[in-house]
Amino acid sequence: MIGISLCLIVKNEEEVLARCLESVKAAVDEIVIVDTGSTDSTKAIAARYTNCVHDFEWIDDFAAARNFAFGKATSSHILWLDADDVFLEEDLQKLLALKSTLPPDTDAVSMHYHLARDEYGNVTSSLRRNRLVNRMRGFRWIGAVHEYLQVIGTPIAADIAVTHASLRHDGDRNLRIYERRLGHGEAFGPRDLYYYANELNDHARYEQAIAYYSRFLQTGEGWVEDNIAACGKISDCYAALGVKELTLEYALRSFKYGSPRPDACCRIGYWHLQEGNYATAAYWYEAAANAPKLDQAWSLQNMSCSTWLPHLQLCVCYDKLGDYATAYAHNERARAYRPDDASVLHNKSYLEAVLKLPGASPATSGSIHEEVSL
């Protein structure tokens, strides 16, 4: 059986730290907490779980702090989390099973990272991260912001999920770090160009975001998944700015880097739906619904685009085309994911009345619920 050191870097996490540690303590042999300047009770809470609490002077560099934490670990393998992450009970049991069966010479294990769920418990945003690594391999963290763990070789892909359960978030922190670095005259490489553009996009600074996404793509050195995502994000920026033609152009441009992804298909479908091109919109939403599932995807996945959303949009498209039976079938598929959704229930009632299905009530209005964007 392998040993596991859990490593976290923390600052002012008194609201969530105990929850995180309680969720995983049964599976780890050592807990290493590195505090980067807490002014609340974070360190006192950490001390209830471990004697390995260390201070690290914050230098605007997440990789440096994580590497410091990794350097304090003593078990054969290192597991890393953030304080607002948790293992749900089923995932804790899977982690315990993995611990007892994993060959000791395993270099790394990747796990799902579930970033968001809807009110029905469906995962809506997910990706994979290298979570458990062999300490003796000396893998290092790279990048001051949006850091990544550089793992050599192919990790084992485990069917285990870490769930992000944030209660609050300093939405300006990463942007401040990037802009301080720019202010010091630092030249960004492709990865930082991409993630700085993301921060600008998140702060509705769309023109600047487009400029930095474009600079990222122009390097020709980006990770293919980031290239695909950048095209989609530029499309969304142009949509927010009301530039319709470039909204479509950049959604299509993502195909230069790989096969059509569900979110790109939904963007294109929505563009045609707004133009009243219902048959064309239906084609693209069908493509989104039927795209191969990327279970091992390392890139961020908007799960709505491959589950309920294209079916809800197809309901709209086929209603507009007068194919009410197909519209109803797609609405039912959306209802399987979102059984109490007001739009889905409205459409159900409306279409049952149109189709004169047994037990149907009179429609509450004369049309389908309007479509929703990506």
UniProtKB/TrEMBL annotation:
<dbReference type="Pfam" id="PF00535">
    <property type="entry name" value="Glycos_transf_2"/>
</dbReference>
<dbReference type="InterPro" id="IPR011990">
    <property type="entry name" value="TPR-like_helical_dom_sf"/>
</dbReference>
<protein>
    <submittedName>
        <fullName>Glycosyltransferase</fullName>
    </submittedName>
</protein>
<dbReference type="InterPro" id="IPR029044">
    <property type="entry name" value="Nucleotide-diphossugar_trans"/>
</dbReference>
<feature type="domain" description="Glycosyltransferase 2-like">
    <location>
        <begin position="5"/>
        <end position="112"/>
    </location>
</feature>
<dbReference type="InterPro" id="IPR001173">
    <property type="entry name" value="Glyco_trans_2-like"/>
</dbReference>
